[in-house]
Amino acid sequence: MYRFPIGKFRPLTEVFFENEVPISERFGDVYFSKQGGTEESAYVFFEGNRIQKKWKETNSTDNSSFTIGELGFGTGLNYFISLENWKKETCPPNVSFYSLEKFPLESSTLKIMKNHFPEIPTWEIDLLDSYEKVLKNDKDTSGSNIWTWSVSHPSHKTRFDLHVYFSDVLATLGDWKETIDAWYLDGFSPAKNPEMWTAEVFQKIRNLSREGTSFATFTAAGFVRRNLESVGFQVKKQTGFGRKREMLVGGI
Ligand SMILES: C[S@@+](CC[C@H](N)C(=O)[O-])C[C@H]1O[C@@H](n2cnc3c(N)ncnc32)[C@H](O)[C@@H]1O
C-alpha cells in the first residue's frame, strides 16, 4: 500500500492503493473497478453511450463535432480511453471532452497510473507538466480553474480537446455553455458521495442536453434513476461491469 501526503496545491486528494487501484481517503471509494479500469471505462461509459456508433453517424467533415461531458475527472482514465478510440476512427469528428474535478489528484499519483496502464498512452510528461502548471497557478481556492489540452488526429484534420474545470460540480455545470451529446456520470458511489447525484445536478445536466443526448453510469441506485427521470431522461438498466449486477444508461 502506498500513501501520498496532501500536496501544497489546493484540495489535492490523499489516496492509497489496493490491488493497484487508487482509493480516495475522503470518500472511501475506488476511482475505477478493481476488476479492470480500462475495461470498465470502455464498457460503462464509451460503449454505454454508444459513442463509436454516434461518431460513425456524424456526417464526418472537418467541421463536425461531438461533445462529451464527464462528472469526475479523477485519474483521467475515461478521457484516455475515449481519446484512444477516437484515434482509431477513420473519419472522426472534432471532439470536446468537458470534465470537472473538485479534488484533483497529485501528479505523483498520476505518474503511478501511467505505469498501471502501459497498453495506452496516459500521463506523458508534457501532459503532466501542463496539468501541474494549472494547479500551481490556482492561488484562489474559491475560484474555478480551467485546464485545456488538445490532440490532433493522426490521419485526419480533426482535434480532440480536453477542458477540465477544477471546481465543484454545481458551480461548474452552471458555467458550461456547450450542449453535451454524451454524459459520463462518474462521481463516487451515490451512497458515499450523494452530492454528485442530486436532482439539482441532474437539472443542470438536462439544461445542457438536447434531444438525442445520452448518458451512462456504473450505478443502478434507485434515487439516481428517479432523479434522472424527474428531469426528463429515459432510463434503462443493463448488465453492469465486473461485480456490479446492473448499471444505468439512457437519454433524452
Ligand atoms: C470515481 S472518481 C472519477 C474517476 C474518473 N472518471 C477516472 O477516470 O479516473 C469521482 C471523482 O469525482 C470527484 N468529485 C467528488 N465530489 C465532487 C464534487 N462535489 N464536485 C466535483 N468533483 C467531485 C472526485 O474527486 C473524483 O475524482
TrEMBL record:
GO terms for biological process: methylation. One of its GO terms (molecular function) is tRNA (5-methylaminomethyl-2-thiouridylate)(34)-methyltransferase activity. Residues 157-250 form the MnmC-like methyltransferase domain. Keywords: Methyltransferase, Transferase. The keyword Methyltransferase applies. NCBIfam families: tRNA_MNMC2. This is S-adenosyl-L-methionine-dependent methyltransferase. The lineage of its organism: Bacteria, Pseudomonadati, Spirochaetota, Spirochaetia, Leptospirales.
